[in-house]
Design a protein that fits this description.
With about 350 residues, the chain is an all-alpha fold. It is built from 19 helices and no strands. Helix 10 packs antiparallel against helix 11 and helix 13 (about 210-220) runs antiparallel to helix 14. It is globular, with a radius of gyration of 24 Å.
Amino acid sequence: MEEESTTVTEEVATSIVSLLSDKSVPHLSSTEQLSLADIVECVGMAEKHRRSIDENAARYLLFWRETVMRSRQSSIYAAVTWREMLWAYHSTSQDILVDIVTRQNKGQMTWSHARDTGVFVWLTDREALIQQFEAVARSAYTRSELRDPVNCSLHYLALRKKNVLTGLWRMATWSREQAATMRLLKNDFSDPRWRTAANKNAYALMGKRRFEYAAAFFLLADNLDSAVSVLSNQLGDIQLAIAVARVYGGDDSPTLNKFLNERVLPNAARDGNRCQATWAYWMLKERSLAVRALVSPLHSLLVPPGSPPDSLRAKSFRNDDPALVVLYQQLREKSLQTVSYTHLTLPTNSRV
């Protein structure tokens, strides 16, 4: 007689969590029992959406929910890792994922929430990417009672919506910077003279350590390279640098390609972060390298090849993560499908 399998549905998970709250499990400490209850609740939450999402989205959802609960129960900052972002990046259910993670934050997409969920790393649809960045811009503007346009300048200029930003400054009559900023914004920044003025303002702001606002003025000068550099190096926010590069320049922009090659990939090799490297290579359309990054020494894939890292971080247990086997199989199949399609589209009757 075959054993009947029990699926951990949301109802089953709720029942188990209730039992774990009321009963003591032998050989488990109270902390371990709470952790077990959290894991069960996360599985139940993922199962709730199982019919409407694919396997990769379910994997992301499970670990994202675990991260949320861990953050709530301790003062330790927690965010999804590059492994979870890679699951979501290769999901076909990204629209549902965005809806779920947004509802978790009461329908708002603040930058801190976007960074914790990695949404601007894994979203692949440009329209959705722009829509979520606009949501971040609105959140940045309304986060203070004064409605300070400085807080959302980077976002609206990355969206190429200078007119919207000008309108917000027009309402900021309380700001000492209003008059000078309005005079500057009314100019035509396709004129090299005004681009130079915007660059000068950006460097002046860097001297005052107003790095995000400086990056905004670099965008006003159409200087995406410098904006991305400031966000990454001075502000220390790689995800924000990636988001601005993708929104302002697009996924094929020379600036983003340069940033992935010169900053993201060397960082991934230094830290032994295979998932980060795989994501970067896939973004660069280097699919064979993306697959190899899951199994080969990362430093050997760099151009030129780097030296093996001395840091113990490169020996993290994530390097031997069993999930890499699943990712390897998925990405290898995708790469082979691309090669097969390319071969099929080549003319078969062409003459030399």
